[in-house]
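Memo to structure team: turn this sequence into structure tokens by end of day. - J.P.
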Amino acid sequence: MHDIAGLSAAEVRAFAAAAADDGALLAVHPERAPASALAPLLRHDGSPGFVVTDMTDVDLFAPLDTIELPDAPLYVLTGVDRGDRMAGWSPNEALPALGAEDRTPLLLSEGIHWVLQQPGVLERNHCFMTIGSRPRKPDGALDSRTPAVWISNGTGRDGRERRNAPKVGWCWAGNQHTWLGFASALDRRGL
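Reply from structure team:
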């Protein structure tokens, strides 16, 4: 991961040591390590992660205007939660509820970093959306797709060889899924 971000392993280790906080999630700024480069690093049951074939624009899923990222290559998130309590909600319902709780939704790249650092957070039937990232239409309006990280069933275009692989995909902002929570954090901060 450090190679993708153009950092040395020593720089990442030094930042992690300085930011040492129980439960904090280390993230690389998405401009340094895009989701398309991170997804193949994911592993579940020995299978590598992948991005769904109809998400060729995965790196255009940018932070919402309401999300301010630290101006640094590395930062941490605290109070990360998978959002299981919101399973069955739509992204359109979850986003204002997270804001009312003073929580910030995770970006797609942050969700991938979370699974890379804590693989057990990705469980079949208990996966999560990362609604802090959305693509924009040419007119500047938000696209209705919202990204998520889940475990492939190996059906359809995924292919049987990808059964149980970590999958980066998308869902419609108005759709509800009983098996997807909404990953969020209390804050993001650099050092």
